[in-house]
Amino acid sequence: MAMPSPGCVIFRGGWLSVTRVLSVVVALVLLVAGVSPVGAQTQTDSSQEPGGEFDVTEGLGPESLGPEGLLGPELGTRYTADAVVYPNLGSQLSALAVAVEEGDGVDAASPGVDVGPTLSSDSNSTVGSDPLLLTIQLDGNRDGVVEFLASNGVSPSNQVGDYLEVYVPPDLLGPLAGQTGVSRVREMPEPFKNRGQIASPGVALHDALTWHRNGFTGDGVKVGVIDIATTATARDGFTGLRALLGTELPSSVVGRCYTGVGQPTSNLANCDVAGGDDHGTLVAETLMDMAPGAELYISNPRTWADHHSAVVWMHGQGVKIIVYSVGWSWHGSANGTSPYNPSPLNTAKWAADNGIVWVNSAGNYGRKSWYGAFSDTDSDGYHEWTGTGATADEAQEISLRAGDYMYVALRWDDTWGGSTKDLDLEVRYSATRGGTQTVVGTSADPQSGGASHYPSEGARLTVKQGGSGYYSFYVKKKTSSDAPSWVQVAVITSDVSNIDHYTLSGGIMSPADSSHAGVLAVGASDHRFPDSISSYSSRGPTPDNRTKPDITGVDCAPTTRSQSFCGTSQAAPHLAGLAALVIGRYPSLSAQQVAAYIKTNAEDRGTSGADNTWGHGFALLPSDGLTPVGDGCADALEGSASVQGNWSSTWCRSQARSRSYARYYTFSLDREARVRIDLESKVDAYLYLRRGLDQRSASVIARNDDGGEGRNSRIATTLGAGDYTIEATTYTFFQVGAFTLSVAGVPAQGAEPVVSVAPGAEVTEGGNASFTVSASPVPSQPLSVDVTVSQTGDFGATTGSRAVTVPTSGTATLTVATSDDSADEPDGSVSVTVSSGSGYTVSATQGTASVDVADDDDPVPVVSVAAGVGVTEGGDAL
After folding, report:
1. Where does a domain end: 459, 492, 525?
2. Mapping DSSP to helix (H, G, I), strand (E, B) and coil, where does residue 578 land?
3. Which of 246, 457, 808, 818 pairs with 160 at a CA distance of 20 to 30 A?
4. What's the whole-model pTM score?
5. Both 591 and 707 in a single domain?
């Protein structure tokens, strides 16, 4: 077979002339950055159909489609040779059908080409080879179309009403297009993936740790993870999952795992093939870190119908939350609804309508999308991405190498069904930047008012050996067509970090762009820099000006199988875990109420109020009504000894060295002592010493980098009586590893903890004075501490004795209310003194603390009178 020339575009199992066809689909993409495949361990598991009866077509009637409903066909139109011959096939399948009819055929793939799926040995087709997995939308005559397929040795893998999923050989495309009732035929989207004792730092960063330690871990809440298999028969998506059962994941996981289209089983092995993709496993592990008491259900459907079937199955199992870290190119108009039946948008809507919280990754297209007004100032029909007239740039140029992949999705402003604004997508190739370009393919579906004409185009390109160079895509308006008010483009690829011209807005894909209140679209913020949005995180608004994403969670956190799981794919399961905790605590809340609870309690970031970068903000769970607890990063020393520790990328951070991990150790002295502290590690160590218990940001009284041997740290100093905190951290940012902390000169810490009190910030009268009561070492059970409250001045504080309970975390907050009056008086203070009591010793240096109280009343005016000069009778006395 002759090799294609540079710039050839691969079509599934072979290649076509570059001037004839560019493979076009609605692209499916996993929203994850840089995940490497890892071999899986296996175990035996019985194979059987999932139990329980349910209707897989539930929710798929026309009434579920939103205001646009199911669209009818356009039949009987045959285009000229320069246009689309089979309009119901779309421009690319039509071109393939014509190529086959004219004898060009589809050759076997040439060396170095990443080909599409081939016909499996158990396929239901007996015609030709390398069939295409197609979606067929019908407008009546379903029995006739099924009979036609059967007469050619083909039977549908899935049937849902007037929707079919079926493998069709290329030489049957033309005859299929001519069958009565065949409204719309497109290729099924193809997956696109870029790709112990580990706890996600998201647990603490999203304030879930306090919920966990108060007993809210999602116990009994059923959560679902839906991912996708790499191909229809790959049996992966959750590779490595079974090796984590009973450790990072529950000991029992229920699955609906597919061996092919329309072929579900309950055998976890059919989700967990060795050497396959593990994206779903990473998602599941992140979710279970957040909600360790939840019950886990998984599925790896490959097609739209199987996806909906999996959701209906999970609903029947009682699943309350589904996390879907997967995105599709746009499935409908700007209002977040879809005319497709089924479609991921309508499936997410059905789930939320039926009480399931749907948590979706927002996408990783922050610098790979463009949204704005259509512009053509030079009237040549081509959209201008930037500039005007002679200086306009009409090309989005991307450098690609052999093996690189790119999918371009285009959507614009028009009616979904009956579209008349006709745009095409054109791809050109040049060997050098700015060199002579050759058109290598177009996507030119008709938009001439037909019932199945939609305002969207898409092009998928895989670069062959010898095809490295510069690929540019253009958006062109047909001469006879009106221009749309806006266009929206997204480039789905992991082979480039950004496109030539991008806008930060407009990158939310489906079903994250759903308008349903029970669907949460989740943006991403790197857990190491949680005050900054990740550059790749998709942002809104949607073209109809809805705010997206809805909320933001952390990503790039470690899992057992990946040191850094980056992308909105990980942010979504962090949020799904929070939803499980909320349902566990408040089981009567609806899906919409759970979503609203999470958004309402988020910490506002960026522009005040909900915005199109952070959504409603960075997700945080409130601690109202919960007992405060520590974060597990601080330990009380028992005296002079050596302790083993470990720096890991969880939530224990240094505040002095904001990008380093840290552990904290506390001790108390009842008299002056000479103390030596050594920190030894293969990592470059760093020591801080502060006064007070669990003090992480107070003034440093000693620090050291390389005072010990090599890069080890040492502090040797004389300390007075009091409480102290050691911070063991690293000189270099983000270092992990083991260390040994050795302390000498510290006497054995008494069984009784030393109790101290520290003041909060100054308040104005009417405010609450806050105090922190601490016990070191931390008590083994809640400790009752007696304190006395007093005040200087009269600010309405309730004075006298009271008891404070210090939990096993070692700290408690005491609040003393003041009242606001109208009397002008000097500023004063509220004081708390720790009284002697049973089971503890009062700190010699921090037994009393005071909070200043400022008066906010104006002084009472002083009225006086003074006599004027004398007057003659008849005059005015002043």
Report:
1. 492
2. helix
3. 457
4. 0.72
5. no
Same domain, 740 and 682: yes
Q: Is 216 among the domain residues?
A: yes
* pLDDT for res 104: 60
3-state secondary structure at position 209? helix
Q: What is the pLDDT of residue 744?
A: 94
Enclosing domain of residue 16: 10-187
Please choose, from the candidates 185, 157, 31, the residue with its C-alpha nearest in 3D space to the C-alpha of residue 523: 31
- Return d(Cα 92, Cα 739) in angstroms, integer: 61
Please tell me the distance from the alpha carbon of residue 417 to that of residue 406, in angstroms, as a whole number.
Answer: 27
> What integer pLDDT is reported at residue 872 of this predicted model?
79
For the chain, the C-alpha Rg in angstroms (whole number) is 33
Is 28 in the same domain as 177?
yes
Find the helix packing angle between 568-585 and 591-600, rounded to 10°: 110
Which helix H or strand E contains 533, and what residues bound it? none
CA–CA–CA angle 137, 141, 147 (5° rounding): 95
Nearest CA to 499 among 411, 431, 429, 398? Answer: 398
Give burial (CB, 10 Å; 0-12/13-18/19+) of 131.
buried
Closest CA to 603 of 591, 589, 620: 620
Convert 397-438 into a string of H (helix), E (strand) and C (coil).
EEEECCCCEEEEEEEECCCCCCCCCCEEEEEEEECCCCCCCE
Average pLDDT, the chain: 84
Q: What's the total number of domains in the chain?
A: 5
Q: Could you give the CA distance from residue 8 to residue 768 in angstroms, rounded to a whole number?
A: 72
Residues 482 and 525 in one domain: no
Cβ proximity of 287 and 47 under 8 Å: no
The CATH code of the domain that includes 686 is 2.60.120.380
CATH code for the domain in which residue 785 is found? 2.60.40.2030
pLDDT score of 205:
87
- The domain spanning residue 590 has which CATH number? 3.40.50.200
Q: Is residue 501 part of a domain?
A: no
- The amino acid occupying position 593 is Q
Q: How far, in Å, CA of 559 to CA of 290, rounded?
A: 12
Whether residues 333 and 211 fall in one domain: yes
- For residue 210, give the 3-state DSSP assignment: helix
pLDDT in tens, 350-377: 999 999 999 999 999 999 999 999 999 9
What tokens appear for 263 in the block? 């072929």
Distance CA 573, CA 549 (A): 15
Same-domain status, 304 and 288: yes
- Domain co-membership, 388 together with 267: no
Residues 458 and 518 in one domain: no
SS3 (DSSP) at 9: strand
Which of 187, 213, 236 is where one domain is finished? 187
DSSP three-state, residue 498 = coil
Q: Are 90 and 185 in contact (CB under 8 A)?
A: yes
How is residue 489 written in tokens?
């483009």
Q: What is the pLDDT of residue 625?
A: 87
